UniProtKB/TrEMBL annotation:
GO molecular function: kinase activity; phosphatase activity; photoreceptor activity
BP term (GO), one: regulation of DNA-templated transcription
Keywords, in A-Z order: Chromophore, Hydrolase, Kinase, Photoreceptor protein, Receptor, Sensory transduction, Transferase
Alphabetized InterPro entries for the sequence: Bact_Sigma-Reg (IPR052016), GAF (IPR003018), GAF-like_dom_sf (IPR029016), PAS-like_dom_sf (IPR035965), PAS_2 (IPR013654), Phyto_chromo_attachment (IPR016132), Phytochrome (IPR001294), Phytochrome_cen-reg (IPR013515)
Organism: Krasilnikoviella flava
SUPFAM superfamilies on file: GAF domain-like, PYP-like sensor domain (PAS domain)
Keyword presence, Transferase: yes
Organism classification: Bacteria, Bacillati, Actinomycetota, Actinomycetes, Micrococcales
Protein name: Bacteriophytochrome (Light-regulated signal transduction histidine kinase)
KW Oxidoreductase (keyword) present: no
Domain Phytochrome chromophore attachment site, residue spans: 147-306
Length: 745
């Protein structure tokens, strides 16, 4: 076997890295003991049991947890209520063994085996709540961060304060999974790494998948010797034990070598997720020997990073919302131009500045409009990009194609490209298109070591058998020429706003009946929301892609007795029929609420009306009546939920679902209508919404609803919530009605 250093790309080394089964290493880090249980009987244990517990591994096997640890410790573990692997804090317990305090974690692994991990507490007097108090202090500071960059820096500083590592970095991954250090807190004597980039190959695909499931990983001592499990395979199955969620899971030897080459003695990483996908990471490094934050400290750091990650996502959504407003303003003339609105809008140079591009082409039917720097044959370039580029993910419901390096990827297009170096292509319906172009920008990229300098071991016939990490992580600067400024997700989302506006115009021009539906829809929405002293009412409606009008509506008005009616509803379908049915239901419910004091009686009357109006379609509804106590500022909402999604209550501490009293959809209730009640105190908000905000093809409604709840726990800005949840493209309209009891002075 011979060893060599790579200086070129090779898919073989990636395949070798990806084949390593890192979730089933068969061994653990020696700082703690791991036991695998069948019921409450130990069927596997790490070989260091004798070192830490004073009981040989063979003497542990086949015994109950109580027999090994004692009745009190076994009871503290609550083995009758063990959850699947998830956030670290969910299964943490303190236990006392031989007069010493340990921290135990429990979870059920993907094989349904119960995993118990025990780590001795180094500081026996440590207050378990202290790390959380420190974490919550940092979370409170996040509200004052004015930008994403400030949030990145705050995250690095906060995690370092909680965990005590020498260096903490926030990585952000681009669409190709390359990472960039966007936030850093470090010891003053350490070299700064802010702005350094690290290649995607540093995190193999199976490691990336594991980071998306198990959010925190500690390597307390890179020089420690792993201890194997006894027996090696899981009894009863003969398979390796899945340690995906185990804190003590042993480390890949390649990763240990990677850390040694960096001069790191201990490390910890925390995943930053968006929609369940890994978008970034908090990386913690210690250079002066081993470092072992307790399980409780790690759980607090995980909670802190998770909370700040959500803050970052919300901040990004807020930035996108502002950018979308800027793009929309630049396209306002689009709706005023009567002859060719698309060409009129594209001809505005302001649009290029806001989109951050040097040229644009829009083709609609037989008309092509261009402005700024464009290729000599834009259709040829666009066709090549669409056929060869990988669609961008997680930015919309329809594909968007980008290329930063048209000249390098397609030298055959050299003559047509001219000064154009990159393109973004957003297809429109019926073969039409929107394309944006950028010129070359020469720049310098600083990598954490030469990304191509991996150590490769081959056998005698040249087959790659092992790939090691690069030996040097000194700053390696790469001069990049011939490419444009990379197309960020922010750029893509801005382009989607422009595409959505163009599609809406084209759809309106092709559907004469849409104008009537739009007029009917907008006439059904209140011109203004009522004024309630000490309260604030806000609403937001957005049509589906292309401006297609659906059956969503909201309403709020004062009743004769001083109370306030709150309504949100949704008639299935789009276009004039849905808008017409919605308008009749809205008017009917208004009359019923003005006539009847009881919300259930009004809802029952609407149910009878709907049976004649909605012969084929279905409607859902949530109608409430708000009564305010002027002395306390609190309010009570009596409501009827007819097949509608549950509302959310949010305050400064988070958000929670209302446990609604449910009824069938409107027109199908027939039996006695049941009403519920929710109380709001000053500082609390109640959000009513339609399904267009949360439903998406290919995603679970449960996950989308959790995204809504967690987002509202951070912000009740409806525009930000819409951009975070509904995104930039949707095939359904969405509506929100927010009612807030203002804090009392």
């Amino acid at each position: 076997m011979r060893s060599s250093v790579r200086d070129s790309d090779d898919d073989a080394d990636l395949e070798v890295c990806a084949a390593e089964p890192i979730h089933v290493p068969g061994s653990v880090q020696p700082r703690g003991v791991l036991m695998v249980l069948d019921a409450d009987v130990v069927v596997q244990v790490s070989a260091n049991a004798e070192d830490l517990l004073g009981v040989a591994a063979d003497d542990v096997l086949g015994r109950t947890v109580a027999a090994v640890l004692g009745d009190d410790a076994a009871a503290a573990l609550r083995l009758d209520d063990v959850a699947d692997g998830g956030p670290l804090a969910d299964g943490l317990r303190r236990v006392v063994l031989h007069g010493r305090t340990w921290v135990a974690s429990t979870h059920r692994n993907p094989q349904s085996a119960v995993i118990v991990e025990l780590e001795p507490l180094a500081d026996q007097s440590a207050d378990p709540a202290e790390p959380y108090r420190a974490a919550y202090t940092v979370l409170g500071q996040a509200a004052t961060a004015g930008s994403l960059e400030e949030l990145y820096a705050l995250t690095a500083r906060g995690v370092r304060e909680v965990t005590g590592f020498d260096r903490v970095m926030v990585y952000r991954f681009d669409e190709d999974h390359h990472g960039e250090v966007v936030g850093e807190s470090r010891r003053e004597d350490l070299e700064p790494l802010l702005g350094h980039r690290y290649p995607a190959g540093d995190i193999p695909p199976q490691a990336r998948a594991l980071y998306e499931k198990s959010w925190l990983r500690l390597i307390s001592d890179v020089e420690s010797v792993p201890r194997h499990l006894v027996p090696v395979l899981l009894p009863g199955t003969g398979e390796p034990t899945d340690l995906s969620f185990a804190s003590l899971r042993a480390v890949s030897p390649v990763h240990v070598e990677y850390l040694r080459n960096m001069g790191v003695a201990a490390s910890m990483s925390i995943s930053l997720l968006r929609g369940g996908r890994l978008w970034g990471m908090v990386a913690c490094h210690h250079v002066d020997g081993p470092h072992t934050p307790s399980l409780e400290v790690r759980a607090a750091a995980e909670a802190l990073a998770s909370g700040l990650s959500l803050q970052m996502v919300v901040r990004e959504a807020a930035d996108d919302a502002q950018h979308a407003r800027d793009v929309s303003r630049a396209l306002e003339a689009l709706v005023r131009a009567e002859d060719d609105p698309v060409a009129h809008a594209v001809a505005q140079p302001e649009l290029l500045r806001i989109l951050g591009v040097d040229g644009a082409v829009v083709r609609t039917g037989d008309v092509t409009a261009a402005v700024g720097l464009v290729p000599d044959a834009p259709e040829v370039v666009v066709d090549v990009v669409r056929r060869t580029a990988t669609p961008r993910k997680d930015v919309g419901t329809e594909p968007v194609y980008t290329s930063d390096d048209l000249r390098g990827e397609h030298p055959e297009l050299k003559e047509q490209l001219g000064e154009v170096a990159g393109a973004l292509v957003a297809p429109l319906p019926d073969g039409d298109l929107l394309a944006l172009f950028r010129r070359e920008v020469a720049r310098e990229v600083t990598w954490g070591g030469d990304p191509s300098a991996k150590t490769v071991d081959r056998d005698e016939d040249g087959t790659v058998v092992r790939v090691g990490p690069r030996r040097s992580f000194a700053a390696w600067r790469e001069a990049v020429h011939g490419t444009c400024e990379p197309w960020s997700d922010h750029d893509v989302r801005a382009a989607l706003v422009a595409r959505r506006t163009v599609v809406e115009l084209l759809y309106r021009r092709s559907r004469p009946d849409l104008g009537a539906a739009l007029v009917l829809q907008h006439s059904s929405l209140p011109a203004a929301l009522p004024t309630v002293p000490g309260w604030r009412l806000e609403a937001r409606y957005r049509p589906a892609d292309g401006g297609r009008v659906g059956g969503d509506w909201y309403d709020a008005f004062e009743l004769p007795d001083g109370r306030t009616a709150l309504v949100i509803g949704d008639v299935a379908g789009h276009g004039l029929p849905a808008a017409s049915a919605m308008n009749q239901l809205r008017n009917g419910l208004r009359s019923l609420l003005l006539e009847h004091r009881d919300v259930a009686t009004a809802a029952a009357g609407l149910d009878r009306l709907a049976r004649t109006l909605l012969t084929d379609d279905m409607a859902t509804l949530l109608v409430g009546i708000l009564e305010v106590d002027t002395d306390t500022g609190a309010g009570v909402v009596d409501y009827v939920c007819a097949g509608h999604l549950p509302p959310v209550v949010a305050d400064a501490h988070g958000a929670r679902w209302v446990e609604v009293v449910r009824n069938p959809p409107v027109g199908a209730m027939r039996e006695t209508v049941r009403a519920g009640q929710v109380t709001l105190v000053p500082g609390e908000s109640l959000l009513l919404y339609t399904d267009g905000l949360v439903e998406r093809r290919g995603t679970r409604l449960r996950d989308r609803l959790e995204d809504l709840r967690s987002t509202l726990g951070l912000t009740c800005d409806l525009e930000v919530v819409e951009h975070k949840l509904a995104g930039l493209e949707s095939d359904d309209d969405s509506t929100m009605l927010l009612v807030t009891a203002l804090p009392r002075p």
